[in-house]
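User: I'll paste a sequence; please echo it back and then give the predicted structure.

Assistant: Echoing your sequence first, then the prediction.
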Amino acid sequence: GRQGMGRGFYTPRPPASFNGPYIPPPGSPSKSAVQVLEELSRKNQWGAPIYTLHSTSGQNRQLFLYKVSIPSFSSGSQGPFTPNKLAPNPDDAKQYAAEYVLIQLGTRR
């Protein structure tokens, strides 16, 4: 019979959203990198991320870059996080910046 097959190996668990903030896998549409970074900062009491917009004009168009400072890191050796990618508009630039910080912090690969 199938009595007792696999018992003890599988315990149903509530979805991840029930235990602490849910961090979606990279590329997941449910939360933006900006939101994830803000939650992470709040959870670890680092202080809210501060975004500073920089723009540069290249090849007849403007490109944008956000530098991100996290208060509890800025006091040490870690200055603002500066992504290595320029964006065609400020919204994308902010996403790139948050994504970059998450990668630097090791929460996303």
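DSSP finds three helices and two strands in the chain. Residues 90-104 form the longest helix (15 residues).
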